[in-house]
Amino acid sequence: MSRFWLVFGLVFLLFVAGFTAASWLKSSSGEGVWFFVVLSALPSFYYLVKSAGLRRSVLILFSLSAFSFFVEGFGVVSGFPYGFFSYTDKMGGLVFGLVPWTVPFAWIPLVLASATLAGLFFRNAFFFLAASAVFLVLMNLMIDPAASSVGLWVWSNPGAYYGVPASNFAGWFAAGTVGSTMYYLLSKGNLPGKHQIAPAKLMFSALLMLAFWTGITVSLMLAFPAFLGFLMVGLILRVFYQHRSRGSAV
Fold first, then answer.
1. How far is CA 179 from CA 69, 70, 71, 121, 148, in A?
2. SS3 161
3. Domain boundary assignment for the chain
4. What is the pLDDT of residue 196?
5. Is 243 helix (H, G, I), strand (E, B) or coil?
6. Is residue 163 classed as helix, strand or coil in its secondary structure?
7. Radius of gyration for the alpha carbons in the chain, expressed in angstroms and rounded
8. What is the C-alpha to C-alpha distance for residues 115 and 112, in angstroms, rounded to an integer?
9. Which of 42, 178, 217, 230 has a Cα-to-Cα distance from 210 of 20 to 30 A?
10. Contact 157/165 with Cβ under 8 angstroms?
11. Which residues of the chain fall short of a pLDDT of 50?
């Protein structure tokens, strides 16, 4: 069996897991959610080290972790750039009572995936950064309605998009642009889609996360987020399929 079909099978299993876990997540205190968040992030961290080297990868991961804590914590306190919200402890204990300690594990794989997808389409740095931010917004248009529906965080002023305010996505575009710029600069300007031997590998963690959350959106009957979930999972799987001949899907 080819590696691609093993990946496809894992994606299907995570979709089913998300579908069946949705009601439990919504009604429980979320025991073990932190374990899934951390575990699903590790493949992309590993492949980042393989592609960029240990020292540069540590610098990238440390910098993006610091930024994710800052922008999420500042958002909780000030309402900027996402709008006013507060985290529950379902993703893990809150650092300084503001942000779960698992935030970098959830945040960085999405940045790596969005940057990798953008790098597949654009060589120009400006278009690369803009596209990376757009891909990140698309991912969060799918994830955020489901995550707030199951109680990972609570909006002070819910919006029209499945309870999520529009400011959240403007904030993700801004934060995604900064995060992608940091990644681009710390990678010495190497566009991941063009300069990595196997760009699919850097998206592996995001693929796992997106498959799981797509299952949740279907279970909660969030129609448009579910559509976006299938779209993003399908797009990443297409990249995996295109790289199967090199033995580089996983």
1. 12, 12, 10, 19, 23
2. strand
3. 3-246
4. 46
5. coil
6. strand
7. 17
8. 5
9. 178
10. yes
11. 195-197, 249-250
